[in-house]
Amino acid sequence: MTTTEGPILKVQDGAANLPSMDVEGSKAFIGDAFVNPGGAVICSGFFELFHSEPLVYEYTYDETKYIVEGDFTLTDMATGQVVTAVKGDVLFFPKGTTVKFETSDHAVGFYAGHRSFAP
Questions:
Q1: Which of the residues 71, 102, 103, 116 has the least number of beta carbons within 10 Å of its own beta carbon?
Q2: What is the pTM of this model?
Q3: Which residues contact 117 (CB under 8 A, 6 or more apart)?
Q4: Which residues contact 116 (CB under 8 A, 6 or more apart)?
């Protein structure tokens, strides 16, 4: 449910029932809570991953992600850098980065990206 009265926007239960990313073998889900609100070039929402085949994603925009629960193992596909992120960590993915996402069990991240299109 989205509240749109006035300048402060609110989405209730933004991480519930996220749509699948439809990547074969990967149990990955994503959903925008806000898409360019008020014409802003920013989108935000939730990303959820269950233990499965890794998800490889290329960022065509800058994004920051806050880990809400669980753990992610992130591999930069160009450099081989590996980062483990857990609840409370904040990440930044620059435009042009390709990242392999993995989790030991289940993880949820909240993201904000500088983009004007759906992922």
A1: 116
A2: 0.93
A3: none
A4: 36, 41, 43
